[in-house]
Design goal:
- The chain has about 280 residues and is an alpha/beta fold.
- An eight-stranded mixed sheet has the order 3-4-2-5-1-6-7-8, sandwiched between helices.
- Strand 7, helix 6 and strand 8 form a beta-alpha-beta unit.
Length: about 280
């Protein structure tokens, strides 16, 4: 089983892209579990048709005993995906990272990853806030082995990519975590693909795929579905299938080489982003 953490700046389309990629993997007959690691608990919404997901930490807080089973908070979504939302602590109390670790530990205890389940993939949809230590929990605690970073050609999205790569470098030696590549979720920035390919090269990795901007994504979200479920024959659905196949076949995993802020800004200036 491959365990993959998906990261990116908040608002870059991380959760939407993850769910559409997972839908693409089901088209390849892969069995996938998605574990949402954000307190917003929106990592499985499209796979569940907008249905309110039971949240692990809420379940733990509400139940007086500890006689839990997987069905208490794991639900079956579109394409027979398995959906879990970790949730977060009560506002102003506790650390999201500890909540993630508690949730994953409970999944392990209840056999969610056992061979009998026969999972091909587990996806951890990570926090968008790279300031909080909780965002790195799946890789720090060796719960994931692969990372993909979703970005766009926007300046702050690329700063976030570089910061995430610093964290991967830090934990690569002790956790065996490796970067599988950057995924461009296009915002139609000038020279966007060339810029992200150049950024990937500086970091020692690849741009594994570029998802074009298409209003079909918003239409599908309005209907609380992935694009592949909502409009399976459309061009955007095929892009998500292509990305799923690229991840499925990827063998190019690296420890990235993060840049100093000065070097990153030199790259951005080269592409005219500070003109």
């Amino acid at each position: 089983m491959r365990k993959i953490a998906i990261y990116g700046r908040g608002g870059v389309g991380k959760s939407t892209t993850t769910q559409n990629v997972v839908a693409g993997l089901t088209d390849l007959d892969r069995k996938v579990m998605v574990v949402g690691c954000d307190s917003k608990a929106d990592s499985t919404r499209l796979l569940l048709g907008g249905f309110h997901q039971k949240i692990v930490l809420d379940t733990l807080r509400k139940e007086e005993d500890d006689d839990f089973n997987l069905e208490d908070f794991r639900q079956v979504g579109w394409g027979k995906t398995l959906c879990v939302e970790s949730g977060g602590p009560e506002p102003g109390v506790g650390c999201t990272g500890r909540g993630i670790l508690t949730s994953i530990g409970l999944l392990e205890q209840l056999g969610a990853y056992d061979d009998a389940v026969r999972l091909d993939y587990t996806f951890y949809d990570g926090l968008g806030d790279v300031v909080c230590g909780g965002f790195v929990m799946p890789i720090r605690e060796r719960k994931a082995q692969e990372v993909y970073i979703i970005t766009s050609g926007e300046i702050m999205a690329m700063y976030t990519v570089n910061n995430i790569c610093r964290s991967i470098q830090k934990y690569a030696t002790i956790g065996g975590i490796r970067l599988g590549g950057l995924i461009c979720n296009s915002r139609k920035i000038d020279q966007e693909n060339d810029l992200i390919k150049a950024l990937a090269e500086k970091l020692g990795t690849q741009m594994i795929y570029s998802i074009p901007r298409d209003n079909m994504v918003q239409r599908a979200e309005f209907h609380r579905k992935t694009v592949i479920e909502y409009a399976p024959e459309c061009e955007q659905a095929q892009h998500y299938r292509n990305l799923a196949m690229a991840i499925d076949q990827n063998t190019d995993f690296v420890t990235p080489k993060s840049m100093s802020s000065d070097r990153l800004e030199e790259l951005l200036v080269k592409f005219g982003l500070f003109d």
